[in-house]
Amino acid sequence: MSAEELADYFMQHSPGFHGDLDLLEIDDKHTNILREAYREIKNKKAFNQKSFRSWKSQSDLNAPAQISFRAIRSQGATKVFLRYAYIKLCRRIEDKFLLSALLDDIEVIKLLGGKDLLIENPVHLTPGAKEIYNVCGTSVNSRWLRYIYLLKRILDLNLLADGGVWVDVGSYYGGLQGLVRKYHPESRIIMVDFHHQLCRSFIYLSQLFPDAKHIMPDQLSEYIKLKDIPKGAIMYVPASEYERIADQTIDLVTNFVSLGEMRREFFNIYMNSPLFRRSQKVFLVNRFVSAPYFEKTYDTDVSVLDYIASHRKIEYFDVFPIHQFVLIKRNLFGRKSFRNTSSNYFEMVTSKADM
Which domain of life is it from (predicted)? Predict the structure, then answer.
């Protein structure tokens, strides 16, 4: 099936697909993303093979300019050469910083012993990949390096046994899920996100694993307990249906970046749910301070203190090193300049505390 056919199938099995904008208290960032997503869906531009994964409001976080046969096969010679010329003429400094940050991320992954994962998982072989940079005998982009790093952590820290149940809140197009399933093929994967994001995940994961059991939103009532999901199955849970799974205890719950972007009302729904409170492991990557007083990036007052709970034991805590050295040109204090993000990110693994 084509990307468009897979999207049509998902929408047919997703009651309320167009209702996410009616959710209350959504943060400004995701409200804008939703509006743009539904605009593209209406105009039939959202879910073709070249746009379902990297589009106007969300992307693979870019790759440095490079002319390669892989890029030409993916995007066409004209687009590749025009992009290369534009970047070298107009965005040369930005591209230099992007390449430096990408190379730093690669070295961090190698430092953890993840070189084999980089070689085994070139991004150009994954569905819908447009942003491709050939380096170190493989191909990568910025978001893909984040996923490779998180995969390495999940494997090294034994956060998910094969056949285990994993819920990820905010999965985007399912890149990390595809990687984890490759190494834990019997794991039960549940993704919680907005409908249009789940649709992107379904397109991606269906193309990677066409023979897997894909549990659609209109089939959720058939699986009351997540541990009863067939081994190797992939479940798609709309954010508006989170309460269906919230009162359970499973092996692993994760969130990478998006909890720190939510208004406190939504943040509390997740963090105070039994799923986050009682599950065996919780793996989080989020900002130390979501909205520093000098640059209120997100419309929330969440900080790292809100992720620390007395009923859970912290097993690992450190600065999240991927994208740590990215410099972005943006306006601040009435002046446009290259700056790092206003708050670093932490990574934390917690487990159920002994009672």
Answer: Bacteria
Q: Which helix (H) or strand (E) holds 345?
A: strand 345-352
Residue with structure tokens 């953890």? 112
β-bridge partners, 285: 256, 347
Beta bridge partners of 133: 140
SS3 label, residue 263 = coil
**CA 222/CA 37 separation, integer angstroms:** 29
Averaged pLDDT of the chain:
95
| Domain interval for residue 97 | 62-141
Residue with tokens 């820290």: 157
The CA dihedral of 220, 50, 34, 263, to the nearest 10 degrees, is 80
Answer whether residue 123 is part of any domain.
yes
Residue 133 is inside which H or E element, if any? strand 133-135
**Beta-carbon neighbour count of residue 320 at 10 Å?**
23
Report if pTM > 0.70: yes
Alpha helices in 157-194 (DSSP H): 175-183
How many domains does the structure of the chain reveal? 1
- Over residues 176-233, the pLDDT tens digits come to 999 999 999 999 999 999 999 999 999 999 999 999 999 999 999 999 999 999 999 9
